[in-house]
Amino acid sequence: MLITVRDNNVDQALRALKKKLQREGVYREMKLRRHYEKPSEKRAREHAAAVSRARKADRKRQERDR
């Protein structure tokens, strides 16, 4: 990952870095790795996320069909 600092504007470069890290999912990964997660907890979390995505897709599909 490369961030260029233009005109000695470090604040702008830091903002761009944070935005890139957010998009890459680094912060989410760090939060998940902070504590050990049992495999059963991981499965449950991933299943809940899949259910949530499916419900959201269904809502979008129904809204489009109206």
Number of strands: 0
| Mean pLDDT score | 94
**Relative helix content:** over 70%
Structurally, the number of domains stands at 2
Query: Roughly how many Å apart are the termini?
Result: 44 Å
Give Rg in angstroms: 19 Å
Number of helical stretches of at least 4 residues: 3
Largest sheet: none
Order of helices and strands: HHH
Shape: flat
The structure class reads mainly alpha
**What percent of residues are in strands?**
under 5%
Give the key terms.
66 residues; mainly alpha; 3 helices
Question: What would you say this structure looks like, in words?
Answer:
This protein is mainly alpha-helical and 66 residues long. It folds into 2 domains: 1-35, no CATH class; 37-66. 76% of the residues lie in helices and 0% in strands. The chain has 3 helices and no strands. It has helices at 10-24, 26-33, 39-65. The longest helix is centred in the last third of the chain and has 27 residues, at 39-65.
What does this entry show, briefly?
This protein is an all-alpha fold. It has helices at residues 10-24, 26-33, 39-65. 0% of the residues are buried.
Topology (elements, then pairings):
Layout: H1 10-24, H2 26-33, H3 39-65
